[in-house]
Amino acid sequence: MSVITFANTKGGAGKTTAVLLLATELAQMGHRVTVLDADPQYWMSRWYDLSQPVARLNVIPYVTQSSIDRHLQEARKKSDYVLIDLPGARSPLLAKAIGLSDHVLIPIQGCAMDAQGGAHVLELLQYLDDKLGLKVPHSVILTRVNSMVTTRALLAVKGLLAQKNVDVLNVPIIERSAFRDVFDCGGTLHTMDLGRISNLDKARENARLYAEDVMRRVARTQQAAKSRNAA
Ligand SMILES: Nc1ncnc2c1ncn2[C@@H]1O[C@H](COP(=O)(O)OP(=O)(O)OP(=O)(O)O)[C@@H](O)[C@H]1O
Ligand SMILES: [Mg+2]
Questions:
Q1: What distance in angstroms lies between residue 120's CA and the mean position of ligand 1's atoms?
Q2: Could you tell me if the CB of 117 is within 6 A of ligand 1?
Q3: Which residues are bridge partners to 34 per DSSP?
Q4: Does the global pTM surpass 0.70?
Q5: CATH class (in words) of the domain with range 2-230
Q6: What percent of the chain is modeled with pLDDT above 70?
């Protein structure tokens, strides 16, 4: 069982899109997934209401700072993965969700100069480590990357983050209309019509590789934590 929080205090970084893609891919692979929707705009919950039931996937709306412990306790019993979608703002809920997580994913737009919202989250993670000795594994996921300049943008940002010892997922989320359309149409990339959505096959491949990358990271950090505890 893994709890993964998506955090960036700047709005529109691509958190909810990253949550939706991971949740639907994991469910497609056969894992039981619960999304705790703690964003007052409830995009995930709206998408869930719009969609036909997706096997093995549940979205819990109206998750707040006071209810998150209870919701998480419930979700743990019936999920392999719990994903937490947060609002794009600084809030006490952010620190709380981080404290409850096995891994934090920080979506940052690969093309944008302004990664400040991501930096806030990284500062908070450092603060929790320094003050409380709470080490929460975390990775940056580059989002909305232009497919034409993927390698250059990725290398530049990865280089910058590597200087600060920040892990970056190998697979970025590319800017694709399918990733927008899925919110409007409901359903998943796997139920969308190949003939009607442009580059849907590429979008599906991107989502699958991204989910596999996250699973590898989370498994690796959990293995490391187990070895530490056993030592
Ligand atoms: N990879 C992508 N390809 C195309 N559009 C994207 C992609 N990622 C995000 N978007 C679009 O960008 C906008 C913001 O994305 P999203 O809602 O995922 O960000 P967010 O970080 O959850 O925002 P908020 O802080 O408001 O919750 C949305 O309109 C979404 O459809
Ligand atoms: Mg959102």
A1: 19
A2: no
A3: 58, 82
A4: yes
A5: alpha beta
A6: 94
